[in-house]
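Morning run. Coffee first, then this:
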Amino acid sequence: MSLAVDELLDYDRLRATGVATVFVRTTTARLVVLGSAQATGALDLAALGGVVVRRRRGGGGLVLLDRGDLWVDWWVPADDPRWSPDVHATAAAAGDRWAGVLAARLGAPVEVHRGRLVGDPTRPGVCFAGRGPGEVFVGGLKAVGVTQWRVREGAFASTVLPASPQSRLAPVLAGVEGEFASLEHATVSTLGLSAGVEEVLEALTRVDGPWRVERSDPLA
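And here it is:
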């Protein structure tokens, strides 16, 4: 049986935002976030203990958000010149912002996935196990996940470079612990960005601007 889960963000407020805005977000709690259409019946959401479960609007699967993540969202109103009717172009634009910032700081190849969604059948419904439009890979490992929500007022791209291994989600999906042990992806620390977090965030708020910048209150 699926459970009722509160939404991750105030999406009504977002729709009412009339200017292009970049949101820098943080969390004080470990969050397990579900995709908009992801059923909860097969998930053991109590298995991690002490986590907050939320649901986002937009595509994608299960993701773990935690303290120290680099979590940046972009809202582009429909009357802004950066808005595009092309779903893939909107996702790619978010990935390109990240790729430019990371490429300037890292000595490894940075790639933006420009194809269709490619899931991993061994880890179904897990965001960091697949490749989605606009997602960023460093040295062949996924570094930045991208999800998108579109309404008549505009387009919203939500992105995160995690601080914590997504393999910690293993207990939520019964029977896939072995496969999760091999789930590799980049993190803030493995990319050597721990000491330069503010510089990365500052750069992301400037690229492809101008943007109104909002540092939201931490989610708990």
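The first strand starts at residue 21 and ends at 25. Good start to the day.
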